[in-house]
């Protein structure tokens, strides 16, 4: 009843040759683009966080320096960590919308058109269609 669409989608996904998708130039381009952004940004964020922790542990005098009122350097750098997290998230979303999503959409359309079907799956598609009409 309500699961007919779900079972049809699962039958379609079972026919996809995922190793062929992974070996395709489009998927390799998508993967390369993703990694070329994520790994350098992740490394920079980890260095920034580690620097903050090391300063907090070993540079007590510097971190306790008052900037104004009761606000010290440690508080400002701690808030900068939060701001950095939001900034990197917005940067990644923008990057993904511009560079990753169009390639992923094209790849998904190719998969849905059956360009990556397993060998012999075309025959089962006709059988599945015949079964659906007899139900």
Automatic annotation (TrEMBL):
Key words, A-Z: Membrane, Transmembrane, Transmembrane helix
Pfam families with a match to the protein in the record: DUF485
InterPro entries: DUF485
Transmembrane parts of this sequence: 37-59, 71-93
Organism: Agromyces agglutinans
The organism's taxonomic lineage, starting at the top: Bacteria, Bacillati, Actinomycetota, Actinomycetes, Micrococcales
Protein name as annotated: DUF485 domain-containing protein
